[in-house]
Amino acid sequence: MGIPIRSLLVASLVLSSIALHVAAKTLDPYKVLGVDKNASQRDIKKAFHKLSLKYHPDKNKEKGAQQKFEEINNAHEILSDEEKRKTYDLYGDEKGNPGMGAGNFGSHDFTGGGPRTTYFSSGDGWQTMGGQGNSKTFSFSFGGNPGAGGGNPFGFDLGDVFSNMFSGGSMGGNQHGGFAGSGKPSARTSSQHKNPVTIQEVTMQTFNKEIADQGITWLLLFYTQQAKGQFVLESVLEDVARSLDGAVRAGKVNCDIEKALCKKNGVSVGKSARLFIYSYSTAEKGSLHEYSGDSDAKSLKTFCQEHLPRFSRRVDINQFNFPSNAFPNLPEVLLLSTKKDTPTMWRAVSGMFHSRLTFYDAEVKDVSLPLLKRLGVKNVPALVGRTVNGEVQLLKDGISVKDLRSGIKELKTLLESFEKKNKKLASEQAKKHAKASEPKENKIPLLSASNFEETCGERAPVCIIGVFKSNKAKEKLESILSEISQKTLIRGQSYSSGNAITYALLDGNKQSAFLSSFDKSGYKSSDKLLLAYKPRRGRFAVYKGEVSMEEAERFVVSVLNGDVQLSATGQKPVLR
């Protein structure tokens, strides 16, 4: 089947348009950046950084530097976006304009009088020009879809034409077997890289919730729409955040919008964007430190590593023992590695957990050291912990990670598990302490022949005996005497020792003979009473009134202070 007449017509129009614009040519982005057409994204990024630094208007004041800088940015914008790069490689223009097109040709119009450049779009997909009588004209856009800005009024992509004319195979999903152009720009994301990172837009809420004193190191770009250098700094920031992924997070603050946040942090953006690191390198609380070095990834990465948290104390493993009283409320952790300096990932997690754990790290050259053997460490890196109850244990040895991000994730998992265990131990300790602090119940003994000498014998200066004849009376006297026994009731120095006074209960129904030693009637008419007995002197006093807490306490105090008259016992009381 031959080539459709419609396709030939459109193709001839395309070629005519190209011929009219041969003079206006686009600069080759590969030549601008000085890279090969097969260059990787890494090579493109590296070339861009080098040239953008060389021709940046803030540093290069030579004539033409500004224009060169813009050309470099434009070339990087095309080649860093895989869709735009593919389109450029196919058409010679990132917007899908075939041939040698100089930038975006726009829509081109043809009338009987030649090409025109201004037109109006009608609702039927045709673009109608005004002026020049009643002549009907039409126009079309190179590439693009109908209704998607610069649409094709013919209802099919020009890729169809080129496919039918110059290609015998399918290069796309087009119904004509050719490739279809697209007028949609592709968003520039870092997903083109192996380890994508996100430069987060930071608001006041984000800063307060995710950044301020959260123990995480952040790179923050402060900018305004008018400030220069944002694009360069943002690109470098992205590279560094990717290489330190897990240890450093990246964000940017638009000071045109977040004025209060910029003011709060004392940051004013003038002619150029400013880059800061929010870190904990010198204090418990986070603070901003401005970066003023060269705009390249290597310098910024070094700056970041210098400002990572330093909450881990470097120790000599040959002389190390966990301090027993440094931070009694915090568990302690020790990282063992072959590194001469504190590893980056350990510094990062020390910031995240600095208020919850105490950190140490040490270089290990020989795992046969006594301490390591005792802990069962066979391979390093290894992590050792000391719990809140003083138990030292190996958390894991032979830790293996593939990169910084996975290493930090592994350490966080181990530390969170260890922290959870310590919280449980701390809770159990608190319960034991609370139980130990509770006032012990003072059990009042029941007098018998076996304990009389110990309780109310010659060694007791004063013995207060609660005599009962019913269970109700017993419970009341036991409660009253138990509480009184825990108080300090002595006024003078006569009974200053711990054994100055003892307390006991006596069953009046079973020990009537014992009571007869104090009163011949044996106090038969009383359901309960208090008897104060001084065995060394053989004298006593009795309270037979209503026994309440106040009255009982008053009686005991009076006896101790000598305010009560004592009587002599008829005979030495004996329990049977």
Task: Explain the overall architecture.
A hairpin with a 2-residue loop joins strand 1 and strand 2 (114-116). Mean pLDDT is 77; it is low at 16-25, 98-193 and 490-498. With 576 residues, this protein is α/β, with parallel strands linked by helices. 34% of the residues lie in helices and 17% in strands. Strands 6-8-7-9-10 form a five-stranded mixed beta sheet. Strands 11-13-12-14-15 form a five-stranded mixed beta sheet. It has a five-stranded mixed beta sheet with strand order 17-16-18-19-20. Residues 1-24 form the signal peptide.
Q: Largest sheet, described in full?
A: 5 strands, mixed
- Provide the spatial order of strands within the biggest beta sheet: 6-8-7-9-10
Give the mean pLDDT.
Answer: 77
- Number of contiguous helices: 17
**Total beta strands:** 20
Tell me the helix content. 25-40%
What's the shape?
Answer: elongated
**Percent of sequence in beta strands:** 15-25%
Poorly predicted spans: 16-25, 98-193, 490-498
Cα distance spanning the termini: 132 Å
Q: Strand pairing plus helix content: what structural class?
A: alpha/beta
Q: Report the radius of gyration as a whole number of Å.
A: 46 Å
Summarize the helices and strands and which ones pair or pack.
Layout: H1 5-20, H2 29-33, H3 41-55, H4 65-79, H5 82-91, E1 107-111, E2 114-116, E3 120-121, E4 127-128, E5 138-141, H6 158-166, E6 199-201, H7 204-211, E7 217-223, H8 230-243, E8 248-254, H9 259-264, E9 274-279, E10 287-291, H10 297-306, E11 312-314, E12 332-337, H11 344-352, E13 358-363, H12 370-375, E14 382-386, E15 392-397, H13 404-437, H14 452-456, E16 462-468, H15 471-484, E17 501-507, H16 512-516, E18 528-534, E19 539-543, H17 549-560, E20 567-568
Parallel strand pairs: 6-8, 7-8, 11-13, 12-13, 16-17
Antiparallel strand pairs: 1-2, 1-5, 3-4, 7-9, 9-10, 12-14, 14-15, 16-18, 18-19, 19-20
Organism: Triticum urartu (Red wild einkorn)
Coiled coil: 401-428
Pfam families: DnaJ
